[in-house]
Design goal:
CATH superfamily of the largest domain: Type I PLP-dependent aspartate aminotransferase-like (Major domain)
Strand order of the largest sheet: 2-8-7-6-5-3-4
Helix content: 40-55%
Number of domains: 2
Number of strands: 12
Structural class: alpha/beta
CATH topology of the largest domain: Aspartate Aminotransferase, domain 2
Distance between the termini: 53 Å
Length: 397
């Protein structure tokens, strides 16, 4: 094994020193070594990719879609995305100029943040939320203002006004709804109130709406409809069609912003994979009902695990979207959410994600993904209840 030349030991992007590796992945990797573990840690749908999408992928390979595609994605896919967004959410984008296909929403997030903002800029990130936004910002030397939204887990217009008064230098705002990790989303009234505040500013809104198809109450209302001139919409096929491994996402927004993001996208990955884009075309052509079928199952699973958690003494709001429950640890149990999650994994063989990894407001909570199978959720519920009962007995001794 080669040893690094001593003179190279000081190399490295110093901004990487300010961010740890993915806490979600590291925790998941560690508990995965425990035999018999039921993992409710990752946002990974247990559904298989729909058969018609699989078949389209095979056909694309057989038809030799194995070469470079246009950097912004196949035009047919971009047109289908544009039509889908118009039909589903009444948002309107010109496929040729305002849509770019990315390697998953993750690459889209990186391309958007690094393409739109400069080192020293400031963006606002409501928390608890997916940690990637802050990580990408810090790697690029961008300041992040975290806004703790607990206990309701929504950014109110009043809170945003307050933060903007304290940080008038802010140039960007990240919204993620339905939210990972809380499952919270915004009512239409709340979104209109937020939009009224934002339109008085020059903020760019990065609106991550990848869970839009998994809204359980009101139909999803996109910020791209309310503020199209200030919003970059981020989405993809991982959650709506269980296509996590296909790595196809997309961004849509004003041409001037998409041009900048698209340039960064070119330098990062050149283009998304051709067969996978053909699969995404099939998902939009003939898979409009795929997400609805999954959503119905998720709602059933949500009820199962939420009931078992409440029986065990956890408190959690009923999620309005996505497939996560963000539960507050009962006061009788270990209150450090990281220590609690490790203890639960070791003693009950149930994996949940510590809430503190999602930022301020997450402390003392754990995230459970009910994208797992019904059988695993039922067993996990039994194990959690047994763990809590044993903890109480030991505590009384």
């Amino acid at each position: 094994m080669p040893e690094l030349k001593l003179g190279l030991s000081k190399l490295g992007n110093r901004n990487l020193d300010t961010v740890p590796p993915s806490a979600i992945r590291e925790f998941d990797n560690e508990i995965s070594l425990i035999p018999g573990m039921i993992k409710l840690t990752l946002g990974e749908p247990d559904f298989a990719v729909p058969d018609h999408v699989k078949q389209a992928t095979k056909v694309a390979i057989d038809q030799n879609f194995s070469h470079y595609a246009p950097s912004f994605g196949f035009m047919e896919l971009r047109e289908l995305i544009s039509q889908y967004l118009a039909d589903k959410f009444d948002t309107h984008y010109v496929a040729t100029q305002e849509v770019v296909v990315t390697v998953g929403a993750t690459e889209g997030i990186y391309a958007a943040i690094s393409g739109l903002f400069n080192p020293g800029d400031t963006i606002i990130v409501p928390t608890p939320t997916f940690p990637l936004y802050e990580t990408v910002a810090k790697v690029n030397g961008i300041h992040v203002i975290n806004v703790n939204t607990a206990p309701d887990f929504v950014l109110t217009a009043a809170k945003l006004t307050e933060v903007l008064a304290e940080h008038p230098e802010a140039t960007g705002l990240v919204l993620n709804y339905p939210n990972n990790p809380t499952g919270a989303t915004y009512t239409h009234a709340q979104l209109h109130e937020l939009a009224d505040v934002i339109k008085q500013t020059d903020l760019v809104v990065l609106s991550d709406e990848i869970y839009a198809e998994l809204s359980y109450r009101e139909p999803h209302l996109s910020m791209g409809k309310l503020l199209p001139e200030q919003t970059v919409l981020i989405s993809g096929f991982s959650k709506s069609h269980a296509m996590t491994g296909y790595r196809i996402g997309y961004l849509a927004g004003p041409h001037a912003l998409i041009a900048l993001i698209g340039k960064m996208h070119q330098f990062l990955v050149t283009t998304a994979a051709s067969p996978m884009m053909k699969a995404a075309e099939e998902a939009l052509k003939n898979g409009q009902d795929d997400a609805q079928q999954m959503r119905d199952v998720y709602r059933e699973r949500q009820g199962l695990i939420l009931h078992d958690l409440q029986q065990a003494g956890f408190t959690a709001p009923t999620p309005a979207g996505a497939f996560y429950i963000f539960a507050k640890i009962p006061p009788t149990l270990i209150q450090d959410d990281v220590k609690f999650a490790y203890d639960l994994a070791k003693k009950a063989k149930v994996g949940v994600t510590p809430g503190s990894v999602f930022g301020p407001g997450g402390e003392g909570h754990v995230r459970l993904s009910y994208a797992a199978s019904t059988q695993n959720l039922q067993e996990a519920g039994r194990r959690i209840q047994k763990y809590v009962a044993a903890f109480r007995i030991n505590d009384e001794k």
